[in-house]
Amino acid sequence: MNVGFFVPVVVAAALASSCDEEGGIFDSLRSESSVYYYNQITSQGAGDQSNLTVDFTVEGDESDRVNDVGYSREDEAPELNVRIDDSENNEENAVRFRGVNQNGANLFTEEARLNNDVSYTAVSYGDTTTGGSPELGVFQQDQSDVETGTARFRLINTVSTNIINGVFSLDVRYNDADDGTYFATGLGLGDATDYQTTDAGSLNLVVVRNGSDPEDEVDRVDCSLNGGRAYDVILAVNDPLNVPTDIDDADGELVIYCHPHERI
Question: Fewer CB atoms < 10 Å away: N or C end of the chain?
């Protein structure tokens, strides 16, 4: 009889003690949102990639930060976690994203409304030497199940069509699709397509100048997708210091980085 009474008291005491230690176990049970950050900022003509390195911070009820994120390639993104008040009746679910370079100069500041228990992909893009400022896109991930043998992906464009002369936006099709059969049209810098479902294996895409007839090919890109997974596929330039400035120079200079969503 005494044991049955004593255990809840000990648990209650432990919980109360934890509450005194900056939230303790109650704090650890709070939900949070996850943000996966990719840096695709370019610097045309720069001597090295040090100007591309970003210290990235996400600020909500609490903050998280990652430093020295260089140009993202095949490596997976660092995960940042932030807790927010996501009540439907207030504005406290707005978070702020900041990116600064190694000299402490501001690269971008953006705000977005996130929800706890949801994962997001954040991608910075733009060129530091062609006018304007780098920007940040924030995209909610689709975490629903993917059928075995298929893969789900969306394409996020970080290729600046302001740099490639004569290309205002992009159309994209599968390599085995007929000319003119595009799953994305008019894709501009920072745009993302809807999710697509395809067979697992090699993903081969053809990138063309929007509205060209006959089709004016910019480049062909490929990567590999595993079955039963969802991906962010980022269209980027291979060399962030040597961005193609003409459509005739872009062949072989674009890439896609296929990043699987983390399973939850």
Answer: N
